[in-house]
Amino acid sequence: MSPRGSILLPALLLACAAPALAQKPQAKAPAVAREQVGNRTSENIPAIPPELVERLSRYQNTRGATFAGWSDDCLLISTRFAETAQAHRVCAPMGMREQLTFYPEPLAAIEAAPARSTLDGFVFGKDIGGNEFWQLHWFDLKSRETTLLTDGKARNQGPLFSHDGKQFAWSSTARNGKDTDVWVMDFAARKPRVLVTEGGQWNAMDFSPDGRELLVMKYVSAAESYPGVVDLASGKLTMFPVDGGKASLKEFRYSPDGRGVYYLSDEPIDGKPQEFLTLRHHDPKTGRFEVLTGSTPWDVADLALSDDGKRLAYTTNEDGIYKLHVLSLPSHREVKLPQLPVGVVVNLGFSPDGDRLAVTLNSATSPSDVYVIDLDSSKIARWTQSEVGGLDASKFVAPKLVHYPTFDSVDGKPRRIPAFYYRPANVPAGRKIPVVINIHGGPEGQSLPLFNPTAQFLANELGVAMLLPNVRGSEGYGKTYLSLDNAEKREDSVKDIGALLDWIARQPELDASRVGVYGGSYGGYMVLASLMHYSDRIKAGVDIVGISHFGTFLKNTESYRRDLRRAEYGDERDPAMAKVFDTISPLNHADRIASRLFVAQGKNDPRVPYTEAEQIVKAVRANGQPVWYLLYDDEGHGFKKKTNVDYFNAATMLFWEQALLGK
User: Fold this and answer.
1) DSSP state letter for 589
2) Is there a contact between 557 and 565 (Cβ–Cβ < 8 Å)?
3) Which homologous superfamily does the CATH classification assign to the domain defined by 36-60+409-659?
4) CA spacing 20 to 30 A to 595: which of 213, 251, 379, 443?
5) Do the beta carbons of residue 337 and residue 344 sit within 8 Å?
6) What CATH code would you report for 105-240?
């Protein structure tokens, strides 16, 4: 089975009733210098100096490759050679990459046909302009023809073949535009039927080996999901009990004999609460239950089973470092593996014969590439070597994992927040280093020690350090830590940024007078909230597709997402929660944002509507601040097209040069 689902014309302004701003005398808003170039609108952004563009160019021409599935003895990979990431095929270690798809929009998911089927090809997802209303298509490798599988309108995701390739399942909002149901089709007949219509967000997880049943999962939040099984003939849904009543469960897979299931869960064990996701096996017929990673105090992050039923692969996320493991089945004995470079290992997939395992490996000093491990000989072969823009990779800086104390305590000691610290090399003695704090989104995300060309440019070209904190609410550090920023505790994560500012001030090599903040999505909210609370300690911030008011965000986000976000942020229809939103939202306190601000947004964003950006830009400009604003009509929740990304990155570096370095 291959790994699944990996990241327009101008519309009228969405109607939204913005909460009243703080009633203080307003400065005269400065004049706005606007430039319209194609799909890009930029306001107050100066012309990018050619010298900066040239210096940045090599960093922007780094690229990675990710494993997407097996096709006989070849690998399907996703990589970018032009504007967007497309499907390619590689048939030998370090072999030529044959590009298969050529679209202006990036592919969102690639699902290869199973080896046991008569099919030769793959299913891929693609949207328009970043709107995330993905349509699924079949690409036939023999004819090189592409066929649309979905309705062309709804949001479709999670493509999944049965083990013989005769059936196909996916998730779609086609029924009512709000709920994400599970659909199936006989792949030869191409006649879809809706299978699960219980409401909420449902995903297909795995077909039984005999093709008679389908494991499904209802996702409520990062801490709550519910598994079940559907009889494909009758459509009967049977839910599995969740120990403790509420837990996070992921990656349900049938065992090769079809009798039991392997899965990841943080349910209680023998009545004892569990902090981390562990790998488990359960045989409902015999009642046998086994925890396979009980001695590992970290989350299991991924799971894959070989088609021949002989092996299982999984990864553990240990303080941001991923470690790969393979077990023999059914004994569950560890298989000896070669030494892998330290980094993040994702996209696991066994070869059709089960003797090899393909993975995507990303390290702090090397972009994502695909490796294949021969499990019998315990040897590893590199199948792709992605470009680093002609740069000297030996000069890339690797981050150091640090932990800093924050405002509250655990067991009588200050709680410590993990962060990855990219420090410039060869800093002259006595020179203090400016800092950019990069805050992840989610909020259940996690910053990892990945290859980061922006961090490398800041370190090697501008002499700026980058810190990536995993503030409370980040995943990977246990169930309790994940819940510490929920609902009315939202600003506690902002206090963790305040504690990081304190830590920076205590470091003799860092310049606490030159600190910037940067983040996207929920990280964009964190940027705005940090500026709201700490403008006297932060010189500048870059907010990408960020939330400026939780009430207006929840009102205007796409309907299929609203209940999912209420589970994390709180329900704006509750007067008490609405009051909290009014208190913590940066829009209502824009008069306190005195730092330089750069806001970037995609017009087609279905998650954080572009009105969130427009209203905070208008409010901060009312302070007399000349805010930079960038809007792309052909992007959504983040930027995917190289030309757009390149301009945004260049503008960001110019912003740091002016606002942080005083150039």
Assistant:
1) G
2) yes
3) Alpha/Beta hydrolase fold, catalytic domain (3.40.50.1820)
4) 443
5) no
6) 2.120.10.30
